[in-house]
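user: can you give me the structure for this one chain? tokens are fine.
assistant: on it. calling the predictor now.
[tool input]
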Amino acid sequence: MKEKGKIWMNGKLVPFKNAKVHVLTHALHYSTSIFEGIRCYNTANGSAIFRLTEHVDRFFNSAKLYSMKMQFSKKEITDAIIKTIKANGLQECYVRPLAYYGFGTMGLTPTPNKVDVSIACWEWAMGEGKAGKFSGAKCKVSSWLKIDSRFQPMQAKAASNYANAALARVEALDNGYDEAIMLNIHGKVAEGSAENIFVVKNDIIKTPPLSAGGLDGITRDSVIKIIEENGGSIIERDLERGDLYSADEIFMTGTAAEVKSVTQIDKVIIGDAKIGKITKELQKSFLDAAMGNDKRFLPWLTFI
């Protein structure tokens, strides 16, 4: 990442190198922070943020689940995201809003501390994260289980959830894989370390319900809506590890990943070890929506 441009912090744009927090910031010690990952695409009609409203709504829902008193409104955060992208002169980028309990009182209880908010963005060209885009990704079923909603709120996009995911990702990479797939405490498929997962068998598309422990992904929702709008359907049900091994196709979805193919789980080859037909179609359909080429989904784009 290049240290250039501006970062929005509590209402002000500051130089990249000056966007700092105190070492006693509460979130640094206790993972009391929430965030979003948002994409801005360089479309034929100008730069457009993908599903900005839904991302901001989830950002505030995550804050509510962590008892955060936000000092900014949804409109102010929305405007600040657009302002930050413009200030950095980026036509295509990844955007990271972050809310966190800041410096003040040290101790487990976060609520006496002020909730600070920052927004950063950096260049992110289409095609980054090639594993699964042009060739299938290799995934390992992790030995780490997905934390359960009885432990902490899984529908909050919270930093603490991703400590669990980071362990799974590192384990997968250390073992020569591209990504991890996590099971929940009941042995059912939850999601990848940072993506939702879909299985195709006999042209039927299935995905775990959110009750299995996965995040309510905005790309997940987008792909489901695209499938339904195109006359197809999705079955949401618990998936076993065996459902992964016996699948004809597997794909994963996420803001960074978009729609990526999986062609190997552990030592098992999925399908013919190539990106499947349905996955290819969805990759194209999603990109058409994100780039404004499918007029049905233009309301998903906020042009700046």
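assistant: here you go. The longest helix spans residues 159-174. The first strand starts at residue 6 and ends at 9.
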